[in-house]
Amino acid sequence: MRVRYSPRWWLYLLVLLAGLRLVVAGILPLSPDEAYYRLWAFAPAAGYLDHPPMVAVWIRLGMLLGGDNAFGVRLVGVLAGAGLSFFVFRAVRDLLPDAGRAGGVRACVMLQATLALAIQSVVITPDMPVMFFISVLLWAMGRVTAGAGTGWWLVAGLAAGLACDSKYTAILPVGGIGLWLMVRGLRHRAWGLRQVPGVVGGVVVATACVAPVVWWNARHDWASFVRQGGRTADWHPGRAVQFLTELAAGQLGLMTPGIAAFFIWGQVVALRHARRGGGGALLSCMTLLPACVFMQHAMGDRVQANWPVVIYPMLAAGTATVAWRWGRWAVGGGVLVGALVYMQALFAPLPLSAHTDVALRQMAGWRDLATRIADQARPGDFIAACDYGTAAELATVMPGRVVVGMEPRWALFNLPHDVSGDGIMVCNPRRDFDRDVFVSVRQVDTLVRGRQGRVAERVALYRVSLRTDLSPAQRSAIVRLPTP
């Protein structure tokens, strides 16, 4: 019985999960968003319309190591998903010293067993970089609370800056640190005064990391800040119950029910420790401030299920001091759910529709679709798409072809604009595209994308001829996308 609880066995589980995720990451086709982020790696910039640039840096590094394929695109994300366990473990040691070594290992296993990490470890999005750097930040702040020296504020500033370079939601747990620092500084003024030089240094380092993103936004009419900040403009308080229910259901799914119970109980325990100050108070501030912001946002607008993953490292750390009687069942349930999701994504044993099967809806049938599009194209034709996800996917699976993006967002990319002549426009019938940039538009076919007889989506093909007298604004939104 004692072997079952041994930290060594939990470490074996972590290694097994990392190996499994490397295999899955190499087999699964890229999703449209991943294919889109892959294009970022070929157009280096200090910012992009949707997010800061860190995910592009990771993908570029992964492709240098693993090649321009699904494995290379996801490689750094898989390794980071495993590596963040080290920082969570070390953070628990400093923030919750009573938990011991076993508590730190259990916190890591609890985090790794969530469905969120199972997905984010094999599908590269900005969520994995932000979770990784928040874990590093948590470790550095644990060193600060343990009295390791004010120099650790510089490490914390670096981690906070890199987290904000990954996703803007990182500012929320960073704000939690500010809240903790203010409260503790007021209660222990001598301690607070000793931290001032370190805090100032950390702020300077974090600002230096974030400055390129701010500079890029300033040069592009604050496009990324406006896009993300503009979400608060669409406010529907009458739908608050629906949005709050969706938020709760999404988190229950991404945590898995058993782990969600441990996460909640861990925060209760952390709050009890917070009364004595130290690590429990810091964990509570870094978790509850973002949680309150997400709940406030859900009072009038939808909170995407993946947004709160930024606080999962703190939630996991909080479970280190929770009684472990049912812990192995929660972990086992989480691992089982993750394994079932992988099995469905790889082999589709259940006859689910595209509405419920995310892998079918996003990843299935792109190569077959590309082959049938190529059959309709003439030599020298370009292949265009009316949405960025489809354009990015076709650029991934149609090597040797001229694949074109045609949306205003492409004007923000440093990509070639030398596109002319005739081509094929691929567009979902529920969408539309700017027909003013073409001399002629004629629908030639409708194709189905899917697998095993299950339909992911239908797309219409149009034969188009690009105008030669495009305005500079129209020309800037038409780019040639990099293909393998």
UniProtKB/TrEMBL annotation:
Lineage: superkingdom: Bacteria
Membrane topology reported for the UniProt record: Multi-pass membrane protein
Keyword terms: Cell membrane, Glycosyltransferase, Membrane, Transferase, Transmembrane, Transmembrane helix
InterPro entries: LipidA_mod_glycosyltrf_83, RgtA/B/C-like
Transmembrane segments: 71-92, 104-123, 130-156, 198-218, 247-268, 280-299, 305-324, 331-352
GO molecular function, one term: pentosyltransferase activity
A single BP term in Gene Ontology: lipopolysaccharide biosynthetic process
GO cellular component, one term: plasma membrane
Domain Glycosyltransferase RgtA/B/C/D-like: 50-216
Protein name in UniProt: Dolichyl-phosphate-mannose-protein mannosyltransferase
Species per Swiss-Prot/TrEMBL record: Komagataeibacter europaeus
Chief place of localization: membrane
Cellular compartments annotated: Cell membrane
